[in-house]
Amino acid sequence: MVDTVVVTPTMNETETPTSAVSWPAILAGAFAATSLSLVLFTLGAGIGLSVVSPWSDRGISSDTAALTGGIYLVCVAVMSSAVGGYIAGRLRRRWLDTHADEIYFRDSAHGFLAWAVATVISVALLASAATTVAGGAAVGAGPGAAIAGNNRALQDRLNGYGDELLRPNFSASKTGDTTANQTNGTMGGASAATGAVTAGPSATTDQARVQSSDRTEVYRLLAKAERGGAVAQRDHDYLVQMVAARTGLSQADAEKRVNDVSTDLKASADKARKGAAHLALWLTASMLFGALAAALTAIEGGALRDRIYGRQ
After folding, report:
1. Is 113 within 8 Å of 25 (Cβ atoms)?
2. CA separation (Å) from 127 to 117, 171, 242, 276?
3. Stretch 284-300: mean pLDDT, rounded?
4. pLDDT at 289 exceeding the cut of 80
5. Model-level pTM greater than 0.85?
6. How many CB atoms lie within 10 A of CB 205?
7. Which of 57, 107, 172, 309 is least surrounded, with the fewest CB atoms within 10 Å of its CB?
């Protein structure tokens, strides 16, 4: 006959019924990290504005500024996260009769959680600020103004290309005016002046309306080209005809102007893409280094507290 022995597991008398996560310490470290990062970002903005200059012989280049800004972004993330993690580790609740490896893990987890909360707070603050800036012009103007506010940066950039496309050919206009004056004489000029006085306001209004319509259409075509990466052939041909009709350029010169603007538009879009990619990489590096710094300093803060209280 085989006797069966049933072993009933017993609870550890030293196990605390409360959670091992000390949220007050985590929130304190997160707010400390967020506040310090805002101070350092403000300092960096002031330093950056002081070293960048629009003059070619002053300040640093744009590439150097971008590289310096990325390195500074990583440094800010490391310093602020390190302070937040240290505070979270130093202020956390003591864990009595807990294995050293478990204490090591809990301290690093507290630092990581403090970094995570600080990151979420920072993203929320930045998103709120961006929304406020984008919708500032939409106060009291309805939903359409909010959409216009979001597209303002794109419109301002593409309007410059539209101005370049529709810029009149002043040399051709000047030559034509000189020839007309020599042919018509003084009487022709007086008749033209009389006609301008008679039909001036109506003609000017119609011309302004046509120019505004053309500019809006050019803007839409350029916006479509930027989203697609290039100007479609049918849009290219239409732009050439519009530029030739509006500016007085020949077909070849109008096509050259459209090609130049299209090339500049591609170069601008490519530069913006590269800038966004570099910023994303720098942000990723800063977050990874920040998380590591917060975890390590939390371990140091918790270990120092335990030593002070005689745990080690």
Report:
1. no
2. 15, 50, 41, 17
3. 95
4. yes
5. no
6. 10
7. 57
Domain ranges of the chain: 23-131+282-308
* Structure tokens belonging to residue 71: 């390195």
Give the tens place of pLDDT for each residue, 78-101.
Answer: 999 999 999 999 998 888 778 888
Which residues, other chains included, contact 88 with Cβ-Cβ below 8 Å and sequence gap of 6+?
22, 25, 26, 28, 29, 30, 110, 111, 113, 114, 294, 298, 301
What's the pLDDT tens digit per position in 207-258?
556 567 777 777 787 777 776 667 778 888 888 888 888 888 888 888 888 8
Q: Residue 182 is encoded by which pair of tokens?
A: 């020599």
Is the pLDDT at 45 greater than 50? The verdict is: yes
Do the beta carbons of residue 166 and residue 210 sit within 8 Å? no
Q: Where are the alpha helices (DSSP H) in the chain?
A: 23-51, 62-91, 100-134, 143-150, 152-165, 170-228, 233-247, 251-308
- Specify whether the CB–CB gap between 93 and 25 falls below 8 A: yes
What is the spatial distance between Cα 131 and Cα 139, in angstroms, rounded to a whole number? 12
Neighbours of 193 (CB within 10 A): 11
Tokens 């003609």 map to which residue? 203
Residue 172 burial class via C-beta count within 10 angstroms: exposed 0-12, middle 13-18, buried 19 and up: middle
Whole-number Å distance between alpha carbons of 216 and 166: 11
A 10 A CB-CB count for 296 gives 18
Q: What is the mean pLDDT of residues 275-294?
A: 93
Angle at 245 between CA 263 and CA 200, to 5 degrees: 130
How far is residue 275's CA from residue 61's CA, in Å, rounded to a whole number?
15
